[in-house]
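Handout, page 2. Input:
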Amino acid sequence: MVDAPTLRVVFFGTPSFAVPTLQALLASRHTVVAVVTQPDRPRGRGQKLTASPVKDAARAAGLPVLQPESVKTAEFVGQLADATPDVGVVAAYGQILTEKLLSTPRLGMINVHASLLPRYRGAAPVHRAIIDGETTTGITIMRMVRALDAGPMMAATRVPIGIDQTSVELEESLAHLGAGLLVRALDDVAAGRGQEIPQENAAATYAPRLTKDDGRVDWTQSALRVHNLIRGLHPWPHAVTFAGSDRLILHRSRPSTGTSGKTPGTVLAASGEALSIATGDGTLDLLEIQVEGKRPMRVREFLAGRPLAVGTLLHQA
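Output:
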């Protein structure tokens, strides 16, 4: 028997991370009355105008879709109010919501955030946690307030981060975990039994948006730190290094604690399946690599087409 009312939900989301939450809402007893996502953007080599993953999922479910260039306009606020939502759910939408919008649903807005708050507030929590070498992370469901990811927490779940797990792999896992956690939290809100715990602001850390400059490999760092950078920036913007004028995109690696005594960035081995690079502490075996403009390759195939001499010095630019 249903022990709480059905809520009218407006959903805000854009990338693949948000799709499992939308799907979980559709499978729940609550009603999604509208979906808000970013406008179609040019993507790929042909720069073809492409819908977001959330828009595709919403259209497949027959839901009305709103795509404002800015959520700050009076027109959009009016459209949202016309949908008469009880609550808003946000999962990686991509625009900052105004105070007016946050208060439009009668029960406010709830966010699915891919970290254990108050750590890693901001746009890239999964990537930054991996880059920093964290061994655990999680999902937090929180009430949205005007300050960035600072609202009280309604639910949270912790998960381990694998030593070789990439950001795309971890994000996919967290997306499904967060979807289930969000529906349970929404059920609690509907039943009036939800609890909200204030964040400890003094313990907050931040995860700023990624840029291509984040991908420049500094070989004076330890092998483990470079390995973490490679997996944290996969699938975008990728860790990169240069061999002469060739820009090399690094996809997979394996760190070692062995020392070489060579200048960081020096190629120590480059034959067969072995492509080992000296770092500031330990050596790094590259496992999958890509010359810009080509497809990613395992090391044996890469070296067959682009031999690297032992002693070559890889560099930032």
